[in-house]
Fold this sequence. Notes:
By secondary structure, the chain is of the alpha/beta class. The protein folds into two domains: 2-80 and 143-215 and 315-333, Rossmann fold; 220-310. It contains nine helices and 15 strands. A nine-stranded mixed sheet has the order 3-4-2-5-1-6-7-8-15, sandwiched between helices. The termini are far apart.
Amino acid sequence: MREVLQKIWYSAERPALGLRGLSWLFIAAAALRRRWLQGRARQTQLPLPVVVVGNLTVGGSGKTPFVIWLVERLREWGWRPGIVSRGYGGRAQRVPLLVTRDTSAAECGDEPLLMARRLGCPVMVCLNRVEAARALIRQGDVDIVVSDDGLQHYRLPRDLEIAVVDGVRGLGNGHRLPAGPLREAPERLTTVDLVVVNGPAWKSPVALRRPLLAMRVSGPMAHSLQTAQVRALGDFAGQTVHAVAGIGNPARFFSMLSQLEISLVMHPFPDHHQFRATDFGFGDERPVLMTEKDAVKCQSFIDARMWSVPVSAQIDPEGTACVRELIGALKKRA
């Protein structure tokens, strides 16, 4: 069903009448939910500035690489950031949960664990991100909160909103769920402080507050899951490898590898897939290249074939200066 919907969402054909009817029900329910949560947000006070990073579409757009980039820049600019996340895919027995390097992905979710390991900063997960933020602030040593994928979590007060858009897929067919991939109407982009485009140039269908900020994501190195070995990803050029991706848009990962002239046997999995050893029973000893997000869920059954490909966001100096200016305006709240 997911694959069928994806084809509809990113097709030029008009969705079926039944799906469009369900979209109107979704729109009505979402509007009521938003008004209720925004009312609660006005009654909620947090002592630190909050930056929300999110998107309008279902599935991956590059939010996590941007959050990592943002946290790294915040540190450079003298802030002490912490992250709050829903912890999608995790089944924490106690919440809010402070994620450490040793927390299991099954408990906290793959993206929070990835960020905790990459950044070493406090990461708090809870379905209720207000409670996550309060717990993060209580544990101390933070002066700014970054909410990962919280654009529609309206109960959480926010001082700055940043939306990330996939430059290849854009907003799909422009329809709301389930007829299209949109959680909110494209006009929502007119209310955010900044729109970041991951990948190729994309033209917004609505007028924005500021020019689009361009971001590209690259992963030049591969890290062995079994040893400390690190290889340039280009070393795999001319070889046939198994490419594994359980992310919102596996095609983006496969395209990055293909551009390096690596021959791929592609294995796309659903976003946040909980991997098992049997998922890697390919019947040969070819290298297995996977995303860093997937690799954190494979620690209990790693073998010599498995390599993680961490990616990093790249933003030019002008774009970086724009983000720094927006962040600097939050100093009065810190």
